[in-house]
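Priority: medium. Attachment 1 of 2:
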């Protein structure tokens, strides 16, 4: 993912643990009962559109049909969930994940031919996980995703390598592929089992919308801090270099006592750590944009760098 988290992704790892635990418990029960417990699991934990029970919209996010179903989902959750959790904060990520999973269940029902008349159980974490892809797309659209491949043909031909693709290209291609299969399934009235492409599409759009709202609300309150200097006469800004040159020699004496603890993120990559003095100088010189976000120990999520400039601007 070309991204290094600064905090332990507790929420993502906990969700992976819950999914794995649920699968192992249901597997053990199935082996001990000769498969009879599977009927109880389908009726009480999976979502059955024709017999919906409110808690199954939640529990269906934590059940899986087999080991490969589980492993595939957990790999994607680990790759994208860790990054998104680090960027938006643990509590917000947990809320967005669960909300997207529930929305994806309703989207699945809406995009199957039989709607609420379907008796086919639906389950799996993929709806909520695809929401992580939608969130990641808005948070790091221009970042590169690294792919590794291995080709093996009966000892005649073997080759391994890697390549990078921009996140917006890889994720958009994946979404359009699932959207195509969802539309075909609806118009061809495919009512059998298989992949719930409607849940994928619904979850992806839910994650996209939640992060879009999160970013819009954040930017709505940022201009208040930035507009104050602009509202006053701009002349003092042009006259500022002389006072700055006078006071700059005083800063080196304080630099050794500062510990670099602040990380910056420009929407594509993160840099740091920096000291507060370094960030102030970067903002004055234009090397750092006011659109950047910052994080340091003690914060639950990334914050606007304007908060740093505003707190020290006096």
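Attachment 2 of 2:
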């Amino acid at each position: 993912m070309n991204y290094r988290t600064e905090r332990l992704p507790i929420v993502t790892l906990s969700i992976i643990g819950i999914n794995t635990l649920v699968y192992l418990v249901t597997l053990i029960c199935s082996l001990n009962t000769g498969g009879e417990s599977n009927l109880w699991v389908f009726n009480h934990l999976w979502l059955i559109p024709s017999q919906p029970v409110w808690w199954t919209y939640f529990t269906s996010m934590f059940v899986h049909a087999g080991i490969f179903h589980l492993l595939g989902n957990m790999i994607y959750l680990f790759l994208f969930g860790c990054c998104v959790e680090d960027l938006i904060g643990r509590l917000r990520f947990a809320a967005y994940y669960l909300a997207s999973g529930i929305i994806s269940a309703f989207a699945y029902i809406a995009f199957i031919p039989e709607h609420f008349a379907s008796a086919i159980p639906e389950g799996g974490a993929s709806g909520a996980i695809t929401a992580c892809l939608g969130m990641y797309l808005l948070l790091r659209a221009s970042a590169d995703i690294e792919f590794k491949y291995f080709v093996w043909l009966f000892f005649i031909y073997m080759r391994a390598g890697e390549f990078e693709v921009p996140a917006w290209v890889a994720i958009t291609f994946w979404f359009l592929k699932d959207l195509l299969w969802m539309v075909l399934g609806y118009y061809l009235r495919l009512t059998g089992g298989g992949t719930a492409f409607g849940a994928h599409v619904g979850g992806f759009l839910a994650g996209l919308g939640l992060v879009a709202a999160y970013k819009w609300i954040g930017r709505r309150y940022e201009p208040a801090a930035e507009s104050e200097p602009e509202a006053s006469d701009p002349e003092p800004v042009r006259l500022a270099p002389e006072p700055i040159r006078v006071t700059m020699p005083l800063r080196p004496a304080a630099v050794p006592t500062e510990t670099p603890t602040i990380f910056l993120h420009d929407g594509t990559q993160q840099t740091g750590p920096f000291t507060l003095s370094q960030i102030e100088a970067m903002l004055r010189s234009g090397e750092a944009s006011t659109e950047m976000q910052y994080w340091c120990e003690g914060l639950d999520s990334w914050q606007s760098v304007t908060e740093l400039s505003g707190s020290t601007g006096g």
